[in-house]
Specification:
By secondary structure, the protein is an alpha+beta fold. Helices cover about 25% and strands about 15% of the residues. The radius of gyration is 35 Å and the shape is elongated.
Length: about 250
Amino acid sequence: MAIKIEKKIKGYAVVKPEDKAAPAAASTPAVPEKKEAPKAEVIQMHESVERPEQLVGETYKIKSPLFEHALYVTINDIVLNAGTAHEQRRPFEIFINSKNMDHFQWIVALTRIISAVFRKGGDVTFLAEEMKAVFDPRGGYFKAGGVYMPSIVAEIGAVIEQHMKHIGLIVDPEMDEATKRLIAEKRAAYEQASTPVGAASAATPSSGNAEPTASGFPPGATMCAKCNTQALVLMDGCQTCLNCGYSKCG
């Protein structure tokens, strides 16, 4: 496109492309920079975390038929980010005490190793599963409630798991309502089938085959392979667990 110049030229200058971009940038209003939101200083478990003067903890009693005296397991927790929205308890150390000194060496070694893993930080929930999988070659035993324990180490692992659930480190999935109703129906049907005809109204504590044991499950129940509880009964030709609802027939 040609432009006619009607005035006298007094001077000239070459306009570069970057000179055209500069006025455009100057006319554009400056966008204020976004300020980053302040981040909370969250303290995570690590082996460099020093032990405070005071720790909170719980003590659990283990009474096993394999030991003459009871074992007392104490797990102390460190409170991280106390007083903030990120406050949490994490296991820091463990102690096991008993009058029985026959197994003193391996108990001390076990407590030191577990405490070292606790202080290392990260996901320490694997300890409970690893310890619960330890089997005694002499055979295990049933604890109160009809739960089978393959060894004393496994019960210590069960105590650690119980403590981790208590502090919120392990979340146990809740049983849905449909499974609860199914278990209640199965248990009622088993008790009704085990009660002699005409004796339901005149049942006494000494009569009736369906009277629950100390564990709360019918006598003669066998161990469930899923929940390790002595609550597996035979119903309609199928083994059914009255504790977790497991059935070999699906």
